[in-house]
């Protein structure tokens, strides 16, 4: 692929090679044969709290020190590499939300291929809501590119949105390719070549943006995870002010010094922004809203039904209606049903006795 010139004549050939490469990588990551030995000690821990954040980086960049400073959890710190050999969890209480922070062992180049138990580390990182890539301020760009390559090889897409395209298999009719915009990377022959590599001969492909062959492969694979990421540049006390000004202008970067506790508040605020959580407050009947204990919901799932399920899974079954105050409704209060989408900083009263008993008991 590196020796092939990129132009319209070679797009078909390059698309076919990329599809083959993606298939071979998937087979390496998910072997079909099962060994007879035990699974071994895993890195994953039980998910708790309202969100999960993972610390990913090379050895000795300050991940354990950052966990100790933010959560108060003890994680061994030493001057040699690979001090942390397993996943160590901690909890951050921030703006009423419980955020689980995972200190993952350091990864090395070739982690996606299994070196240094890298697959287990990256598999745990796939379960997080936000990834913090901790970089050394002395050589941040070098580490950044290597870690991005390892995560991309494992199906994690950092700071990207899912491709705006539709791919639907069908029983007959061949490959139907349509697009609402001008395409500079894909044509019908390239799409047919990629689909044939996956033994797909009948499908509808509809594009709503200028997609590449990699975007189409990601949609066909269906196992890609699109995750927000913050590049945490640690040890900024070892660089000059001019270098710090340059780092501060880069997107998705947050310069800190974990040892000296510089800019940790800014990091927490940035993590909260990337988690994109909503705080919703309960209002017992006849009492003021309880602003001390909010209910935390994801911005992608914030209906009244999601709100009830967050408190207790049986509440949605007994649900009749909810009274809502805030920007979610026109009238205050307003009676709504399960499908009402809730906005942040709103108060709610749900009309069944079980919920009011739980609120009165401080649940």
TrEMBL record:
Q: Locate the OBG-type G domain: which residues?
A: 51-276
CDD domains under this entry? DRG
Q: What is this protein called?
A: OBG-type G domain-containing protein
NCBIfam families listed in its UniProt record: small_GTP
Q: Which InterPro entries match?
A: Beta-grasp_dom_sf, DRG, G_OBG, GTP-bd, GTP-binding_2, GTP1-OBG_CS, P-loop_NTPase, Small_GTP-bd
Top-rank taxon:
Eukaryota
SUPFAM superfamilies for the chain: P-loop containing nucleoside triphosphate hydrolases
Keyword tags: GTP-binding, Nucleotide-binding
One matching Pfam family, short form? Answer: MMR_HSR1_Xtn
A single MF term (Gene Ontology): GTPase activity
Q: Does the keyword Zinc apply?
A: no
